[in-house]
Amino acid sequence: MAKFIVGLTGGIGSGKTTVANLFAELGITLVDADIVAREVVAKGSEGLTRIIEHFGADVCQNDGSLNRIALREIIFNQPHQRDWLNNLLHPMIRNTMLKQVQQADSAYVIMVVPLLFENGLDKLVNTTLVVDVDPKLQISRTSERDKVASTQVEQIILSQMPREQRLSKADDIIDNQGQLNALRSKVASLHHKYLELAKTPN
């Protein structure tokens, strides 16, 4: 039977992980694009083998794992190389995520994807949930968490889909500017909604 999939997204520092973990506490399986993206280039993986064949041994650490910094430097100034990498990895990430969705045994599945709309992965889900916060809070939370300058966070925000556009595409929105208890009750309410939707044939 096809799984009911909720696509969870939001800008950097919006609290996607916190929201996802609250769903996990309710027994819902999470399929996280960031984790899968690391898995497909793990040591000994087909993804890493192809990357080394293409870019050479410089993108490999001494222990055989991916040298992310070296790879980032190569693709940063060479859009055609970045396209090659995306064309290799995006299908791998998508296929692995769909496989994990089918293996899940919860009533529905939360697919956590930072660039859900940007990468067109919203086509794979039944409904979308956006975690939203005020941009000022996004900047302060992220610079504190990642120990980076606020100007760097602003650049990342500018590279992502504009807030208004993301909100206009959302089926559900969680405002994550309050306390954890308020967030927990919003998640519980959506959880009941998704349980009902998952029972209804698509």
From TrEMBL:
Gene Ontology terms for molecular function: ATP binding; dephospho-CoA kinase activity
GTP-binding is among the record's keywords: no
Protein's UniProt keywords contain Ribonucleoprotein: no
Documented EC number(s): 2.7.1.24
UniProt superkingdom: Bacteria
Subcellular localization: Cytoplasm
Matches recorded under InterPro entries: Depp_CoAkinase, P-loop_NTPase
Catalytic activity field: 3'-dephospho-CoA + ATP = ADP + CoA + H(+)
Chain coiled-coil ranges: none
GO cellular component: cytoplasm
Pathway(s) this gene product operates in, as recorded in its UniProt entry: Cofactor biosynthesis; coenzyme A biosynthesis; CoA from (R)-pantothenate: step 5/5
GO terms under biological process: coenzyme A biosynthetic process
Primary residence: cytoplasm
Binding of ATP, residues: G13, S14, G15, K16, T17, T18
CDD domains found in the cross-reference section: DPCK
PROSITE patterns, per database record: DPCK
Gene3D superfamilies: P-loop containing nucleotide triphosphate hydrolases
Family that this chain belongs to: Belongs to the CoaE family.
PANTHER family the UniProt entry points to: BIFUNCTIONAL COENZYME A SYNTHASE-RELATED, DEPHOSPHO-COA KINASE-RELATED
Protein function: Catalyzes the phosphorylation of the 3'-hydroxyl group of dephosphocoenzyme A to form coenzyme A.
Protein known as: Dephospho-CoA kinase
Name of the gene: coaE
